Amino acid sequence: MSIKDLLLDNDDDGTEKVSGGGGGNDEVRRSIREILNKSLGTRKCLERDIGWWTYEFCYAKQIRQYHMNIDIRTKPPKQYIETEHILGIYKGSGNSLDDYPNEDER
Asked: How does pLDDT run across 32-41, given as a tens digit for each residue?
């Protein structure tokens, strides 16, 4: 099953569950955009510090991993990126689930 085949169903208690099926792709697109817009707001990137690394997810742009360091020789001390790895780059238009291929198109 591909991501394009997913649709949202409402349970009796009002919660949403994801199930497979045909049709309903407009609902999925709208729902995903609504969730991202509500979650991200005006920020388009989320960051998470885990030990040495900082992970950054920028919606419709990229995912990267980096380590910040501080140069104490400068006044005031300045932060700089010492090591950076791009984990993925988004190349779609960001407007549609059609940017994601079906499993048989990969």
From this structure: 778 877 878 7
